[in-house]
Amino acid sequence: MSAVTSNLPQRDAFWTRVYEIARQDRDVIIISADMGAPALDKIRLDLPNQFINAGIAEQNAIVVGSGLAMAGKKVFAYAIAPFITLRCLEQVRVNNCMMKIPLTLVGVGAGFGYQDSGPTHHMLEDIAVMRAFPTIEIDSVSDSVMAADVAERSIKERRINYVRLDRQTLPDLYKTGHDFRPGLDVLRPGKDIMLVGTGIMTHAALETAEILSKKGIDAGVVDLYRLPVNAPALLNAVKGAKKVATLEEHFLPGGMGSAVAEVLADAGSTLPLKRLGLPVEKGYCYTYGGRDALHNWYGIGAEQIIDSLIGFAKG
Amino acid sequence: MTLRNDTPPLDNRSKMLRRLVIDALDGGGRGHLGSSLSLIEIVRVLYDDILRHRPQEPKWEGRDRFILSKGHGCLALYAILADKGYFPVEELRRFCHRDSYLGGHPEAGKIPGVEASTGALGHGLSIGVGMALAARIKRSGTRVFVAMGDGEINEGSVWEAAMSAGKHGLDNLVAMVDYNKIQSYGFVSEVQPLEPLADKWRAFGFAAIEVDGHDTNALRQVLAAPAETGKPTAIICHTIKGRGIPFAENEPSWHHKSKIAPDQISAMYAALENT
Q1: Domains identified in chain B, total number
Q2: Min distance A196 CA to chain B CA atoms (Å)
Q3: pLDDT in tens, B84-100
Q4: How far apart are CA A199 and CA A197, in angstroms?
Q5: CA distance B45 to B220
Q6: What is the pLDDT of residues A86-134, one digit of tens each?
Q7: Inter-residue contact A243 to A273 (CB < 8 Å)
Q8: CATH number for position A103
Q9: Which of A146, B7, B85, B163, CA to CA, is 20 to 30 A from B231?
Q10: Which helix (H) or strand (E) holds B207?
Q11: Which residue intervals define the domain Transketolase-like pyrimidine-binding in the entry (chain A) (predicted)?
């Protein structure tokens, strides 16, 4: 897939699209738990009646947002990812999942996006936790085009969704206008092994596939960007490959790889599967020095992935 | 309480500790400058004059406990811990380096002298309540000090802890608020006004005192005073975000910087000397 290169931070692409729609649709409300962003500044200044800074009080933000949504408002609640998910989980469970009140949780800093801020700011359990609840959809965003699309569909579809945005600027993978409804896309075909990535690890999967192909292993890439997984689409995407591997910047139990394993197992698939991610036995990481250092510590550095997959592909 | 006119000038020790903060910013190329500089005198007075502690024996059972609940202000804590000898001062320049233990938020069990991993806000006072209860049960005489940010006390959990401290009458617990008037995305007065702040703490069963958080004599006096029997203490420290570096003072954009250029570092050292 050829890329167009707007290469915006996902956060800016997301809030810019929200701003464009909110100017026309006065029911759109943005609640920030004291988080700023350049694109959010425009909303705050131009649309003061549609922006609430709830302060550093995420639990209250979720439920105030739910109250607004009960009155027909289309509400976004925004904070650093662990604080808008784990911190207010029970509020989401009762007010959104049980009462079916639509709300869009927007978390910035998926995976190790906050790099040297340490484990309190890393988001390594959100897919496992959020996909355990009925009615929540997870939008695991891999580029800025998708970020803008998710913003628009969150307003139109009035879902209960959790949008996990990367904090780093990643290259664009998709062209504007791409149809993201399937929840996953095959970005590169491959006969020997199909790599399934999400978020930043889709980018790692593309780089990995390129290197594997030079080593004689025909590797494809699927970008899985929405959970629950579209099972028929996933089974279709991997059916031509001999093996499947998942790549995620998330603890392995319950993560995207687990979701893929569930789909394959439920379908009676005998495709060998390898899940690459953060081994939970390693615990939390207190290594600093950037995202690559963290990946290496957990065993998902670029070279470590290649070595692991060569062994898997040939095994 | 107005501060700009009557807060005392920074003495050499306060400037030296701030230089250590800039050293770390220089080494790491990032950090929460404003949030750390408002805290300097608070940690200085605690570690110089109030806390019973042994830098060479960080786990000494008889120590008083200090929890920096606003973990993003960690450069102030790192500076005083290094100055006291918990770890070498040279380590500050390795802030956020690959093989350093000094990260963007303080981690217990990794950094000598750090009592609790903070960074997620609104946990420290509850930990402090637990520690103060344990000290009372053990009759150890340990005092527990918790420093929180003004934005941090937006978190409902802080007030759960406060109710609990009041209920248990924890006169060995001191809650300190670094009231620098600016939080992450704006001024406290606009984001979530806190006043009447001292009265809030009083309503939760605390003896509450307001103090100039940059006045070391005043801080020493309130921290050394005996607690009111049967009541936890709240000290509202009126501070200036970014204090000591005029171009960062009261400037929300200096809450945190992720890419600090060398010329900005030089400007900080120079501004500090001239302040």
Answers
A1: 1
A2: 29
A3: 999 999 999 999 999 89
A4: 7
A5: 6
A6: 999 999 999 999 999 999 999 999 999 999 999 999 999 999 999 999 9
A7: yes
A8: 3.40.50.970
A9: B7
A10: strand B207-212
A11: 8-172
Local confidence band at B4 (pLDDT 50, 70, 90 cut-offs): low
The single residue listed with the structure tokens 């995620």 is: A248
**Which chain A residue is nearest to residue B28, measuring alpha carbons?**
A289
Residue type, B109: G
Encoded tokens for B91: 């380590």
Q: Is B107 an 8 Å CB contact of chain A?
A: yes
The residue-averaged pLDDT of A58-70 equals: 97
What are residue B145's DSSP bridge partners? B66, B174
Tally of CB atoms within 10 A around B71: 30
- Do residues A36 and B184 lie in contact, with contact meaning Cβ atoms separated by under 8 Å? yes
Share of chain B above pLDDT 90, in %: 92
C-beta separation of B174 from B232 below 8 A? yes
Residue whose entry in the numeric block shows the structure tokens 């690459």: A276
Residues A188 and A50 in one domain: no
Cβ-defined contact of A56 to B156 (cutoff 8 Å): no
Domain of residue A279, residue span? 184-314
Asked if A53 lies within 8 A of B190 by C-beta distance, the reply is yes
pLDDT tens, position by position, B131-148: 999 999 999 999 999 999
Amino acid at A42: K
Q: Is residue B182 part of a domain?
A: yes
Structure tokens at B150: 């003004």
Is residue B3 one of the residues assigned to a domain? no
Q: B72, B32 in Cβ contact below 8 A?
A: yes
pLDDT of residue B6: 72
Nearest to B78 by CA among B49, B107, B120, B50: B107
Is there a single domain that holds both residue A144 and residue A191? Answer: no
Q: Is B30 helix (H, G, I), strand (E, B) or coil?
A: coil
- Measured between beta carbons, which residues in chain A are less than 8 angstroms from residue B151? 34, 55-56
Distance CA B66, CA A78 (A): 31
- For B99, other C-beta atoms within 10 Å of its C-beta total 9
ipTM for this prediction: 0.91
- Rounded CA-CA distance A137/A50 in Å is 24
**For an interface test with B, which of A64, A120, A286 has the most B Cβ atoms less than 10 Å from its Cβ?**
A120
Q: How far apart are CA A295 and CA A80, in angstroms?
A: 21
Closest chain A residue to the Cα of B100, Cα to Cα: A288
B143: domain CATH number is: 3.40.50.970
Which residues from chain B sit within 8 angstroms of residue A52, using beta carbons? none
Cα separation, B165 vs B208, whole angstroms = 13
